[in-house]
Amino acid sequence: MPQKKKKTYPSWSMFPEHHASVSDELAKSGLDFQFNEDDDEDSCSQDYDTNIMGRFRCRRGNCKTQGWSSKRIAITIRRYQLTSYNVRVYHQRCKSCNGLSRPDLDVQSYVDRITYRLKKWNGMEVETPVYSRESKGPHEEDLCEGCKNGHCTQSDGRVTAFPDYW
């Protein structure tokens, strides 16, 4: 009998549906960027690892986990050419069943991080926002796909103290 192939899921996603919010915020500073759906780390001109907030729900039907929130969802922001960007948002694994989960984003933290970085890359003076909500739990590298892909600011001794992770 042939062996069943194990289904593999991506370790990250992009969220182009939030580009309109990013674009609206950038327009206030006179910037106009397009979302680049062709993710290619070799052709990007700049990249930056940071994190955002959101919530995860385990997608496995037999898992009893109700879900979890995270203030450390790893992301990689990439700039292409002059006015194109994209963002990889890394998934996390469920602590109970090890299932891979795609986040439901805190859209405001996503928009804030992206616009801040794009403004900085454009040479604009940007005040670093004060971030007052500390994370309560330890960062579990074995559950973080950002860590596994080498793009988490919390892994490999790259722990970035709040609020300076912008």
From TrEMBL:
Keywords attached to this entry: Metal-binding, Zinc, Zinc-finger
Record-linked InterPro entries: ZAR1/RTP1-5-like_Znf-3CxxC
The keyword Zinc-finger appears for this protein: yes
Gene source species: Clonostachys solani
Molecular function per GO: zinc ion binding
Residue ranges of domain 3CxxC-type in the record: 51-150
Protein name in UniProt: 3CxxC-type domain-containing protein
Domain of life: Eukaryota
